[in-house]
């Protein structure tokens, strides 16, 4: 093979498979540590579910639109790549829940929809639902054994506080994050602090109050956006990677990943083979499963069992004078599945984000989301049908009757990994199996959380473990055609 000997001043060539925010964050961490890095992305675009776009000339996010600010990983990365002065909190934080045929203010005093007392959900739940929450004090003390190693959020909350609190608040909140089913989502994986607090308190409401007291010193906004869109973050990270000497190749699918004779890895991309001392697989679980099948059948089998939900975002632009007066105060609303609507949420983008409003002129922009795990038949409808269904639900919820001047439907097929009961144990088994192979790690939304900070944390963990490996073979890039 006519191989490039590589930069021997570096401590080893690392190939990162996947150019979503996880792969880019891992590459940035590695380049910062002085590693020679090549990122391989199968599609023609970087960023994964982070996508900046526009509608009627107004800049918008067509994918994820905000990131948790009380975890530092995402905001730290944004600052590190020069976007610190563009970080913006939401212009308004108030939201609503559209349930029982009315928009009801989003209550305070809860943890992912689980209240500290019944009064927190007054107005949202029926009198019977509120009474059921108050009834928890008459139940036997919460038994840690009932939680076991893991339990579904919806199941445990319904057992302690009644189904109504799950159906009207926990479900839409979790659905907004995972597009999943609260009665199947792992409590240990999705709300780990509440899971641990529930083990230590007589009541679930008491566990919530303890978390609220512990978090009472937190200041600053809970969420953050980026002027120009969260979708601008991947490009900024990619620029920082290449500025640091890294290489990024798009439209370069990986066809095989095998251990090299004498150590290191062979990464086959069509007719080329990249030799690497280490590899980070930062792809969705199904893709990672295929790549790991030859070298780690155990990890591949576990990853193949990870299920995903698909969803669509419907972005709509209206004339401001025709729409602004119809929209209620706040940044948008959630919709419980139990109410049988098509949309699961709506965000009033020009209300929520100052940078969107400043670029909108005489337009108002909002978006709806459609599709949950197991309820994805709506995604088979054409774009016009999804727009019509969104407009109907918006009219029923708010009275908005204006016709949009522009629409954009963005489909995220297999966009959100599901975290059912046992997810954490599955992830541990995957990592144990992968760790047996020197110089190989995995990261992404399928492991430690689907939010942007959690995904970046997963990437940092993988990169740091590679950096800490004392000896890695120097990698070379081969252009031999086979």
From TrEMBL:
EC number annotated for this UniProt entry: 1.3.3.15
UniProt keyword annotation of Flavoprotein present: yes
Enzyme class: oxidoreductase
SUPFAM superfamilies (UniProt xref): FAD-linked reductases, C-terminal domain, FAD/NAD(P)-binding domain
Pathway it works in: Porphyrin-containing compound metabolism; protoheme biosynthesis
A single GO BP: heme biosynthetic process
Main location group: cytoplasm
Name recorded for this polypeptide: Coproporphyrinogen III oxidase
Species assigned in the record: Streptomyces lavendofoliae
Classification of source organism: Bacteria, Bacillati, Actinomycetota, Actinomycetes, Kitasatosporales
